[in-house]
Amino acid sequence: MTGNLVLFARDPGNANQLVASNELICAQIAGRCDEAQTDVPRALFAESLRAEGFDAFEAYVEPLYMLPAFQRRRVIGRDGFPFTLTNRTYEPGLCPNCESLYSRELLGYPICAFELSDEIVEQLIEAFRKIHDGRDALAKLHEETVGG
Questions:
Q1: In-domain check, residue 133
Q2: What is the three-class DSSP state of 116?
Q3: Cα separation of 129 and 12, whole Å?
């Protein structure tokens, strides 16, 4: 890989030990896209990455506690087991950070779907720079589009 990127993998001799590696072992790269800092909503940032040829995704999975099983508090049988073991409820707001990542912030790129050469990594970095450098124009375009 290029630059100062250091990758880690499990040591084959000791599964509890990480060692420096030149093999990419993760399936996706994800991070926060903070509109307060970029003035560009995540959806527009992702759309811009896609326009540059990178299949960015927004969010990942809905917070698990928002799934119907948690909301109904019933999984096995009709009596509510295992939720009858506690009084815990799973209301929106239980984990604001998780909900914010899902609804507004998390932006990712599925690196497992591509042969990730140094050239493609450089192109991805350049796409991020291009979008970042053009964020004022993107913010203005977004404002005109949504009437903000």
A1: yes
A2: coil
A3: 37
Q: What is the number of domains present in the chain?
A: 1
Predicted TM-score of the model (pTM): 0.69
Distances (CA, A) of 10 to 24, 29, 125: 12, 18, 26
Exposure class string for 56-79: b at 16+ Cβ within 10 A, else e? bebbeeebebbeeebeebbeeeee
- Identify the CATH number of the domain in which residue 115 sits: 3.90.1150.10
Structural domain for 67, as ranges: 27-146
In-domain check, residue 9: no
In a domain? residue 69: yes
| Those residues with Cβ within 8 angstroms of residue 139's Cβ, 6 or more apart along the chain or in another chain | 38, 39, 40
Please give the pLDDT value at position 17: 58
HSE, side-chain direction, 13 A CA sphere, residue 30: 16
Report the DSSP beta bridge partners of residue 21: 7
The two tokens of residue 52 are: 């540059």
**pLDDT tens, 40-50?**
899 999 999 99
